[in-house]
């Protein structure tokens, strides 16, 4: 089944508005199978805010979502929705009494119910007419108004995602929890669906916690991004704050591959074969790692100025050249991305320059 562009979706601005809530994790501890999975996990989402939880596999992202949903009990700390405690040690308010919506990776649609019945399922508390009105408005918004009598298996992957979205926002929850909502969609479709989903979340003004392991997705969707590591937040901020000022080398590595050069601070600079990098605030003698992003951190040219090097690998990635460049004085090649240039080939001698704006320096232990 083919999927078309965003024109498939209904009119923007037509999703019903939720009464967004504050969602607060306060020093939440969860232990599973003898392991600490959430460790004094604290995070507060303001009403209407979209926060993305980003982290390696096993860092505890899904567990945090299950805790918010009331599916996973906590062993310490508390979860509050609008200041009401919904989880604490020995207390778990059931999922259906929390005013939350859920949207999972596999969409969890009911296969034996029609598209319309899937959406109506979450609206059982309303009268028949009100429920039908709300369900049909949600289906219209996601462009499925003409599919209400079909069954989920008759929809494409992208359409199933839309149905899952319609079902989760139709009851106008005050908090929406989304676990890897786009991971089963192919890359081409993901961008449109992501953009439309974001627009629906904004329209409903629902407080949203989105789990993803994709940094780009987190940066596009989140008002704030929380980087989770071993069940704790390693860093939280806007996408641009975390990208520009990652808290440590691991956080920086999460957002892009890096070329890393070990150095020692002397005269306020970290020396590298590509030239010195200013490191204000670090004492002379401090061992550091200079981390260079492949896009923007370095540039190469066939002519001076720059440090001499040679292209030893090159892939063309639809308009972008991904190159490995060996430079005198370094044991490992530098990774470099720049707009494709057919005149630059493997084996070519080049000159490499550093752009300190896109270079990060971290003190080593
Ligand atoms: N029921 C369980 N019993 C024992 N260990 C569990 C259980 N559920 C999760 N874990 C462990 O808790 C850790 C965190 O799991 P969680 O699913 O929250 O991670 P995640 O960050 O969402 O990972 P992924 O991106 O792979 O989904 C993992 O090491 C996992 O193996």
UniProtKB/TrEMBL annotation:
Species of origin: Devosia oryziradicis
Gene3D superfamilies: P-loop containing nucleotide triphosphate hydrolases
Pfam families per the UniProt record, alphabetical: ABC_tran (PF00005)
Chain ranges of the ABC transporter domain: 23-255
Keywords: ATP-binding, Cell membrane, Ion transport, Iron, Iron transport, Membrane, Nucleotide-binding, Transport
Protein name per UniProt: ABC transporter ATP-binding protein
Membrane-spanning ranges: none
PROSITE patterns: ABC_TRANSPORTER_1, ABC_TRANSPORTER_2
Family: Belongs to the ABC transporter superfamily.
SMART domains with a match to the protein in the record: AAA
GO molecular function: ATP binding
Keyword Chaperone assigned: no
